[in-house]
Amino acid sequence: MLTIAMQADLTRVVTFMVTTEGTSRSYREIGIPDGHHPLTHHGGKQESLAKVTRINEYHAKHFAAWLTRFAAIKEGEGSILDNSMIVYGAGLNDGNRHVHEDLPTLVIGKGGGTLKPGRRIVFRKETPFSNLHLSLMDRMGVEVENFGDSSGRLPGLEG
């Protein structure tokens, strides 16, 4: 539905959550009968970590397949993906310790030429995550001085 809505230009802003962070959903389709959330409180147990890794890989595989389809939809001189800014990540670095910093995050798409993709950028550990949101809002024409606990715009995202 999300893809169709974007393709039909019914919306240009969407939020999609794969699952709630507190879910005890099992992943029997990939051989994991345990609840996801309890597995993230792994206590360093390798068996639990391996299962969480398989769940993350499962999500990433489906996300990559969606991106492939999204990139194939023509829009103007490029694709919808070229004109998008997609943020994919998690709210925690380590669910076992509830670490909210150094979050694994991908920014996908070219944002209509305002983003340079295909590279890794590392910011100082104390950089608020909301600085990314503020920087992306700039590219959407949303004029705000700050957002959440932002401390400024992120340099080096330019296309």
Could you describe the 3D structure shown?
The strands form two sheets. A two-stranded antiparallel sheet has the order 1-2. The protein is built from four helices and four strands; from the N terminus they run αααββββα. The chain is of the alpha+beta class. The protein has one domain.
List the topology elements.
Blueprint: H1 2-7, H2 36-40, H3 46-71, E1 74-75, E2 78-79, E3 86-89, E4 105-108, H4 130-139
Antiparallel strand pairs: 1-2, 3-4
Give a short synopsis of this structure.
The protein has 159 residues and is α+β, with helices and mostly antiparallel strands.
Please tag this protein with its features.
159 residues, alpha+beta, two-stranded antiparallel ribbon, 8% strand
Indicate the structural class. Answer: alpha+beta
Strand line-up in the sheet with most strands: 1-2
Number of domains: 1
Low-confidence stretches: none
How far the N terminus sits from the C terminus, by CA atoms, comes to: 29 Å
Total DSSP helices: 4
Largest sheet: 2 strands, antiparallel
Number of strands: 4
- Topology as H/E string? HHHEEEEH
What shape does the CA trace take? globular
Mean pLDDT: 92
- Strand-residue fraction? 5-15%
Q: What proportion of the residues is helical, as a percent range?
A: 25-40%
Rg estimate, integer Å = 18 Å
